[in-house]
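User: Predict the full complex structure for these chains.
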Amino acid sequence: MTVESRSQAMAIAPQAMRARPRLAVMASIIGGLLALFAMAWDLQLAPGSLFSGLDKLALFGAAAIPPSDGGQLPRILKALGETFAMAFAGTCLAAVAALPLGVLGAKTVISQPVVHFAFRRLLDWFRGVPALVWALILVSAFGLGPFGGVVALALADVPSLAKLFSEAIENCDSKPMEGVRSAGASPLSELRYGLAPQVAPVMASQCLYFLEGNFRNAAVLGIVGAGGIGFELEERIRIFAFDEALFIIALYMICVAGLDTLSQKLRARLA
Amino acid sequence: MSHPDSAVVAFEALRRTTLSRQRGQALIGLLVFSAILLVSFQRSQFFSSDIGGDPMGRVADFLDRMVPNLRSDALLADRGTEGSLAWWFYDLPLWLRLGWQTVEMAILATVLGTVGALAASFLCARNLMPFAPVRFVVRRGLEALRTLPELILALILVAAFGVGPLAGVITLAISTMGGLGKLFSEINEEIDPRQLEALTAAGAGPVSRIRYGVIPQVLPNYASYALIRLEGNLAGAAALGIVGAGGIGLELQRAITYTEFDTYLAILLLIVGMIFLIDIGSEALRHRLIGLGADK
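Assistant: Here is the predicted structure of the two-chain assembly.
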């Protein structure tokens, strides 16, 4: 077919030319749906169990209203405080540990490419281990209680924070440091007046962000025995006390929203 | 007479007051921070909790028990030989089967959650949903879904749907919907309005406006976010097994309960490897999608 006749054909029958890709799109959509159904089949996701589960869920919902504190409000508040304490302590420990690692991970500090690459990959590998997995290990090593939770949260955050810290250091402008150095300052004051004012707000803001995340994670850690509100909640779900569970969940969600708002405000001031 | 010195004096005074105010603020901030930190360490019993004598020794002991006693001469021997790789990964077929189940759970949940997020995102995008109360309700609903931790949702759903992957898929789908719904609606709000205006001018209805005015602009971004979420959901699905919601997490929990710490490490290595593979695959896909999006 020559170029002219081809363009003529296009002009005459554009639909016919477009039919082929549309067919391919349809085929891939149908193929994808079939694959999804095969997966659902493989997981034995039966509609029957879905509907009976929904029925049960409706029963749970009915049992949960009205929510009640079960006369244990002080205990619940204490557990909530413990969860926040775990999150705060874990975030602080993680930040302290991540700072030297972040400095070492910055390309501007260690420019040797092989070392830099190996270090980053190592951090990546540890980043794949979630706090829950650490908590499982630590609770079985240190026994039930919030201690394992704090360490688990810190361990899970260190690699991510170190990576973000080293990126903050890499991204900062070298000119203020050069300026301080040219004024005859010592290396320490170079860091204090040239580097710190640039990276400290970024790092503080990242720590606040991780604190928000840790408050959520800390609630979950209670489920594997690391104390706090998750432990109280799991107890009540296990004995089907859904009115008390709903009370705890609602209180917890309000606290999460409050902490998020506060931390967003602080972060906006830092930025 | 206004002296040049007086300007210097005024500047110095201003500088002193500014500095002392800043120092005061920093001091107050530091005090508040230390107070919270102290109370936190006290409340979380970080220093006071009874973790037994010689904690470092116990961690070392624990790590020692996690590392299997592999023998170099028997490394490739069969399952029955102590010290071989097959002996370490003694239940590999089952773990691979459960690992694949975990992948399936993550994929199904991501697809279902993405569909839900799509619907929600059109309902709460400022430029597509003119009716403000609907936007408000959908937004707050998505926010609530994001706040609820996955594992707590899973606990409730396992109680309702029974132990098995169904509860896990629903849990992950719900939290995916919460997370992606917000991101999608943000993408929707950043689209070029001119194409929508053209469609409105041509008399298109709301569905055709979305199909021809929005979808072509946002599809690459949607897909890219959904793939990132798939990576997260895989880790999530692995963790959900711990509360009985199907997948490989169940074996992880079992290994800890039976104090088979070397088995724990083996399964953990499998999970991390699985996440690593999915990460690479989805990153390649995402880069292609973004590349395609840029070409248009």
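Chain A touches chain B through 56 residues (CB under 8 Å).
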